[in-house]
Design brief:
alpha+beta; about 240 residues; about 20% strand
Amino acid sequence: MPSFAATLILSFVSASCAQSPQQILSNYPLVQSIPTVHESAIQARRILNLSSIATLSTVFPGHLQPIAFENRPDDLADVPIGLIDYYASCDPTPYDPTILAISIATSFKNSRAGSNVTLSLRYHPPSDHPPGDDIYTYSPANLPRFSLVGHIEPVASSEVREHGMDRCFLNRHPDAVAWKPGNAIHESWWARLAVEHVYWIGGFGDRAYIGWVPIEEWRGVTQEEVENARLVGERGYKRN
């Protein structure tokens, strides 16, 4: 039978080798080098370019005016709501997503009433990605996701025409032609999400940066950096 001292030593060694939840979920440099804030900003900007659908979150105003045809509950004041919406990277300032806003939609009514807006995105690896190293490689819990916090800002039609923002958006979302400005169904208008803050979760904290990305870093990423970056599952990806 092992002595008490031997048992104590074995327990200590086992505890030292085990990966604690804190190591997985915090910025604990165990597995490999953690990307810098700037490298994380590049990854986020690449996801912004690759994706075109995200969750748009707003807050109902504190004093709701009843609207009969909506049949809306009367206890929604200051309650947040997140809804899927289209966006595209079509703005002359590529760090601010382009949105086709519909006036009657809840998100844009809340925005006009003064709500800040959060656009939440996550990375979807390509369907033909190579096999993972383990069950965590493509685990949604270990893949990048982030939120852009800001406000909705209308874009003048002259600016839309000058930069071809409408053509760019409809290339990503051909079906949106049915509700572009001037349609016969709903009032709509071109807008941008003017990003003010960025919160990033790159994956597990032992291998990815988790935290706020300064707005200067977000805006300072070049298009060349975005195009050259590769995320896990993309062809040409190299792990740090």
